Amino acid sequence: MTHSNQWTTPTPAQAAKGFKIHLIVFLLTTPAIWLVWYLTDRTYPWPLWSTPAWAVGVMFHYLGVFVFKKSGKN
Question: What is the arithmetic mean of pLDDT over 47-67?
Answer without folding.
Answer: 97
